[in-house]
Amino acid sequence: MSWEKFTKHYLTLPELDFALDISRIDFGDGFLAEMEPKMQEAYKAMADLEAGAIANPDENRMVGHYWLRDASLAPEPELTTEIEKCLADIRQIATKVHSGELAGAKGKFKNCLVIGIGGSALGPQFVADALGNPDRDKMQLHFFDNTDPDGIDRTLATLDGELGETLAVVISKSGGTPETRNGMLEAQAAYKSAGVDFAKHAIAITGAGSKLDKVAESEGWLTRLPMWDWVGGRTSELAAVGLLPAALQGLKIDRMLAGAAAMDAATRSTETTKNPAALLALMWYYATEGKGAKDMVVLPYKDRLMLFSKYLQQLVMESLGKEFDLDGNTVNQGIAVYGNKGSTDQHAYVQQLREGVHNFFVTFIEVLKDREGDSIEVEDGITTGDFLQGFYLGTRDALYENGRQSITITISEVTAEAVGQLIALFERAVGFYASLVNINAYHQPGVEAGKKAAASVLGIESKIISLLREKAGERLNTVTIAQHLGLESQTEIIFKLLNRLAANQRGIIAEDKFSTPETQFYYE
Ligand SMILES: O=P(O)(O)OC[C@H]1O[C@](O)(CO)[C@@H](O)[C@@H]1O
User: Fold this and answer.
1) Which residue in 79, 113, 247, 363 has the fewest CB atoms around it within 10 Å?
2) CA of 122 to the centre of ligand 1 (A)
3) What's the 121 CA to ligand 1 centre distance in angstroms?
């Protein structure tokens, strides 16, 4: 890698303490010029989106997450007012909770139990981990982000005896996501058995009029905050979804918003070589041949950014993973994202990256500041942070020598501003990339199929339970149960359901503990 090539492709934004290095993606000299007309179309589409166009045509919705960090940009004055009111409400709630004016049955709230999934959990989890400091935080955040009973129990165990000082924040844009509904019901049951009134310890963040909104209203929860239809779940970190938990934790939400606003301003530039989001989208296009031919490995060399790749996984994959383009052609688009943190991953999968199947490009994130305070020397004149940088630079070169390309994002420190910037950078890069490949980044039709199939499985389970009750004591095997139910085509599903029911003492007995498909089942 020549110094000339590096400096030519190193974009620095000094006012943001931010740099992007694309010199290790081997695009040829003509690539940027060749892509420029498409990029100009992407800028136009983005400008229309920010001005309030129906940028999500399938759902007939505006896409307004950029207005959240500069409410004056919202296309209607009522929206500006709503955004500002919501922010004021968040600040006020946090102030009252921290002062103890708004308290739980057993005193000042010291924990916050966030109940949500997908975009209603990943952002809050990432930010809490990136910016939290258990010694300084005003509240500790805990999460129910699944419908796994054991996962729920693990979280509840950490809150044992403290539910009277725990504020539950139930987050669901649609207000009808089953996992979140279940989490809420499990939390309600736990509060009840602890003798604590859940409603007086709960806040809902959801769309107006949703099921969750109605439950929160009718049960008299502490308050409700809005989720607007023009903010997608995966771009909601800087809406109440992310800001309320962060404010409760004691994080500087205004600085996070300011960081995002500054990155938004920088990425509105239509001068491609100065626009980091445009360059990122173009590098993704080049590296993946505009069709997801390679995966994106996200490697932050900073433990605090470990959850960023998980957060990006949803942002990128739910946005870009689409069957059809905007003209209805089958395209099966997407970019797979995975990663954890450097240098830890060096001792896990970097072996394959260096020498194995060549199906990825890397996005390194370099953080200049090591830690608060000084470091000891672990070798003569060398600190742990020196090692961390050494491993990043070494890995990057070792990969590049073997034809494995990479991008590096450099920030000086993991601050609230930097976290806001990173979120805004990738949000816009995803939007640009979607334009380059002509897809709708703002809907998620594919998730519906799994949800519908799950509902039908639960329907079959109810039928099995009724049938076995009716035939209590009779020994039946999977095939005969399927026949009785007239569901022969679902015999395998019935086998799976019976096995789990039997494993959980739900009245159904399997004669063989490690039951084979032929095993007999009966109802006690
Ligand atoms: O906030 P909600 O409506 O509960 O949805 C949670 C998540 O579920 C999804 O709709 C996918 O099923 C995501 O897009 C979303 O972030």
Assistant:
1) 79
2) 11
3) 9
